[in-house]
Amino acid sequence: MSWNTFGRVLRFTTWGESHGPAIGAIVDGCPPGIALAEGDLQPFLDARKPGQNKFTTQRKEADEVRILSGVFEGKTTGTPISLLIENTDQRSKDYSEIANTYRPGHADYAYDAKYGFRDYRGGGRSSARETAMRVAAGAVARKVIPEVKIIAYVAEIGGDRIDPANFDAAEIGRNPFWCPDAAAAKRWEALVDETRKAGSSLGAVVECVATGVPAGWGAPIYAKLDSDLAAGMMSINAAKGVEIGDGFEAARLTGEQNADAMSPGENGPEFAANHAGGIAGGISTGQPVVCRVAFKPTSSILTPVASIDRQGEATQVRTKGRHDPCVGIRGTPVVEAMVALVLADHKLLHRGQTGR
Amino acid sequence: MSWNTFGRVLRFTTWGESHGPAIGAIVDGCPPGIALAEGDLQPFLDARKPGQNKFTTQRKEADEVRILSGVFEGKTTGTPISLLIENTDQRSKDYSEIANTYRPGHADYAYDAKYGFRDYRGGGRSSARETAMRVAAGAVARKVIPEVKIIAYVAEIGGDRIDPANFDAAEIGRNPFWCPDAAAAKRWEALVDETRKAGSSLGAVVECVATGVPAGWGAPIYAKLDSDLAAGMMSINAAKGVEIGDGFEAARLTGEQNADAMSPGENGPEFAANHAGGIAGGISTGQPVVCRVAFKPTSSILTPVASIDRQGEATQVRTKGRHDPCVGIRGTPVVEAMVALVLADHKLLHRGQTGR
Amino acid sequence: MSWNTFGRVLRFTTWGESHGPAIGAIVDGCPPGIALAEGDLQPFLDARKPGQNKFTTQRKEADEVRILSGVFEGKTTGTPISLLIENTDQRSKDYSEIANTYRPGHADYAYDAKYGFRDYRGGGRSSARETAMRVAAGAVARKVIPEVKIIAYVAEIGGDRIDPANFDAAEIGRNPFWCPDAAAAKRWEALVDETRKAGSSLGAVVECVATGVPAGWGAPIYAKLDSDLAAGMMSINAAKGVEIGDGFEAARLTGEQNADAMSPGENGPEFAANHAGGIAGGISTGQPVVCRVAFKPTSSILTPVASIDRQGEATQVRTKGRHDPCVGIRGTPVVEAMVALVLADHKLLHRGQTGR
Amino acid sequence: MSWNTFGRVLRFTTWGESHGPAIGAIVDGCPPGIALAEGDLQPFLDARKPGQNKFTTQRKEADEVRILSGVFEGKTTGTPISLLIENTDQRSKDYSEIANTYRPGHADYAYDAKYGFRDYRGGGRSSARETAMRVAAGAVARKVIPEVKIIAYVAEIGGDRIDPANFDAAEIGRNPFWCPDAAAAKRWEALVDETRKAGSSLGAVVECVATGVPAGWGAPIYAKLDSDLAAGMMSINAAKGVEIGDGFEAARLTGEQNADAMSPGENGPEFAANHAGGIAGGISTGQPVVCRVAFKPTSSILTPVASIDRQGEATQVRTKGRHDPCVGIRGTPVVEAMVALVLADHKLLHRGQTGR
Prior knowledge:
Four copies of one chain form a homotetramer.
Chain A lengths: L4 E2 L4 E5 L6 E7 L9 H9 L18 E3 L3 E2 L2 E2 L4 E6 L9 H5 L7 H8 L15 H14 L4 E9 L2 E2 L20 H16 L6 E8 L13 H10 L4 E6 L10 H4 L3 E2 L6 E2 L7 E2 L2 E2 L4 E7 L9 E4 L5 E4 L13 H24 L2
Antiparallel strand pairs in A: 1-2, 2-3, 3-7, 4-7, 5-6, 8-9, 8-10, 10-16, 11-16, 12-13, 14-15, 17-18
Helix pairs in contact in A: 1-4, 4-8, 6-8
């Protein structure tokens, strides 16, 4: 079945295929009275291309978003906010081959098995193009949680990790990898370049930290904050794993090593560590919320891969020409957006039930 | 806020605190005409204690589940199925200390921050006792998907992994660890025993494989099968990470290594590998659905950990007496149950929209 | 399909068949910290038998409700509240006839057409027995909206209407009809008695007024307050019509006659009239919320009615022995409960999005 | 709060204000493989102006709908269908007066009380303009239920009723009132004209009949078919009452009069009458589904009505110039659309749980 709405109180619905006339999103449940204009969203869309300063005016390649409803005299009315981006890049390609072939690792075969047929152009609805709308909707969500600051960055490419000791937030916007470690960024430049020339691809791990989240957000038992974060991030194209706090590393620690000891503090407890990643029992503790997403390497590589066509006959699939050797990098602003959407939703959920 | 319903078409709601009179669950949306009786559920509850044969008659320690509605003349009526387990083990403990203290790593502080106060006895609603109802509800879900076989097992304890070459499904029920590798089970016996004597605790990784899932289940974009699996598993107590297929390892493979090449087969394509874990684009491909959950080590250890009390004053918390050194093991039947519930839900979702 | 949950933030789920061991409800999303005990709910269940003082101690015939979760030290914890009533009245009747016959006007045929078979004893899930749980859940909801006062009464039986000029709220609890007009109650006594002796049945109209509802509750466009009220009331057994304010009479007024003119007041506007029934554009205006439900006459009458059996053969159905000649009367506490549940839900919805 | 999605499996979300750049709707959950093009929707939008043949090419005044996603090669893909209508009629009016005044009977005051401020131009989100999207979405829904035929018509204006004996379906499209009784249409012409000249307004009652609905649709207990129909219709602007079958008249019948006797038939039972309006126990019986909506007279009349302004000061409101004396008439295509949407949703719900 098709289910294109995410969220419980602050709900957003996306629509649009890669090669349709446009893509869009509706954000419903946004509180009224919040200042909102295209200028609040566009920078995040511009930043989808790594390496560019968020406030650049060079927008030719970026998608231009329009707000078609839900805002009046510069402020949200509380009614649904419709966002739309026109698909201006309508390249007329010869799709006859792709139409009849299932690319391994992509959703082609699965979509056909489910629906009976699919819009095969550029991946149709399964294309990563849809994530542009998540970024736009995420920008709206950030306005609902101005007290929260969210930063995502690439922590690992092809098994090569950043060194936490070299962490510099300002570095994130200065290289094409959203990498907070200048030395790692340099290594990655060579690695990715090498991979591109070889016609191969690499996976990546994106980490996201949200600070300023107060204690108390999250709705046990089946709308736990970590549960909703996991769902949001696993829904991103190419995502194969999700962690909160120490994640799989926590499974390798002892109880003593994993403890987040508490001591008295001015505004709530002071924590000696944050192995939990800011969430305990599915509810935020006031510590930074830390999560991580693993992205697999794209299957669109120059090396031929055995596959089948729609008639079930053996064939081979290979990408021609220029390809993106590490799609996971582009997941970074999408991860930020999903975290923003989940946190904003939970702020409203919490307020609804407790009045706080 | 409180949100205790999981699922979209096949929906289950749990209720009950650790020290209340009972715990229960409602399963709503179950198709009519399915044979169902307590005997279909009880073995799964009995099996929550590892090492026991599922069909044992020694049920004294296990919880006895009753079906109070939704079944008539031995078959489901299509109306809500109410399950109830009485809390017979009402130990009168002295809770004054726990009432006033926040145990680090548990949900105590977070619940108080959210709700203003909490039922502190045995963890109240945050207790793992709730998972008994998931296991019972999961047993109902299995009846909806008789074509699917689900097996979960512990793949790793305290960093010590099973060897896939030694995998023997029959071994799973023969040791106290749901371990499919006899050699690993032996090592773990020593490791866990050692840890218990030291008053410490270990984490674990549980893996689950579902075979017989046809291609086509999953509802893009925000009810993707992997998304809902991630949510379901992250909602389990102590879960800190979730993987589908190769998970975080996929992020360290190249495109060539990660490819699941396809070739013609009799019933749909043959796959050369299953790095994707049976899900592509959020929809099942017909391959085994493989997922993994990381459980952190329990914070209930004999070593004192610094914490604060309800007045914000410094204090120390330590567990007294006998403790469970590896709670992650007990997550195994719960993981199976959540996978069953998600798959059954998706079978009905898919049928609703496509008629298939 | 089966869908047994009502509400969006304050959600309740009912379960249980007429002749199963018990019936119950889960109320999820209730704010924490509200004083709640069986004594808050029992009077409303006792009052399901009209004519009895709400605080009577003669409870033998009434159902005894137990709170099994969600309350600690006398206050709601914010976790799900499980309510249960045991079906103690297990009369062993000979159901062979009913099992094989479809009673016209009841849900028998429709349930079989939908599910393939049904629990036919006493109407199974379609029985009005389920409404006891609505009344219990409604009592919980009232605690969420202490600022609101809700009164329902029978306004019409068999076409005979109350005279608004004779309205006396105190009269409602003094006669077996929840009638606020003593003269009408007298007429109805004769009318209903007459109907019972004739083996026939009558319909009824129940009116409900909620005062103290502030302006602003309701969520356009598809969770309008009047929309949710209509859904809640139409879901009651035997309901065939719903009105807000003047309802169908409004369709017969002119714009001048229907106007609710406003003038300055101390706490918001003063209204010259309330044709709108307290709701405009789907949002409460601060005026009393007025709604009305039409209940059809029961089909369980002594007069034989032509019908068919499960094999499709012609047969006749007639009720034997004592029957209830006006089931609509019993809808009165159920209408109050549904109004309470909808209003409480909307209070939380409104607070969630606007913070007010 | 804002809640702009309707439906459970086939869900549609509308957006857009009266004087924003556009209005739109997303239809999600539509089965794949259904032929769909603008030509399937446009006639229903054209028909919003009564008196015009559905297949007219004179579309200047009607809104032109575009399908922006969810359709490929002429068939639905199963992904969300985005519909958009541009607001071309951007009259620059002087809104200063309306901005500061609350029109009685409209949603103005209620929206301000809820959100703190509102888009006052032409009613903003509360405007009937939104119903154009319901009509478009309803046209999509009809494609999901080709077996069902839905006809709505005005049954009463200002208390003057049609005569069922004069019922002629073909007459509906021949007069400006969607009236199936030629004699009534004549009377209404005079009545409405008179009312317009007097600067007054009238209410109306719209009736809708759906034939071809099989037995079994509807999801007890809280997604009963009549419940969802009531919610859908009560959500239409100016709706004040909803009836199923005999509605309030049923409350005035005896059990004998209201009985829908059954006898053996070829395809399921034959019914002697249809007082129930095709729904029993919340599930369709196979009989025509009959429902009715009461629309109040518009408050936009030439007669001044006392009101208050935003500062709480006394003022008067009167509509200037041309006004619509009976807005209820325009509810007719909207009622059809909501009935189509509810029935299509229930077809999929039923199929999801029962496989039928």
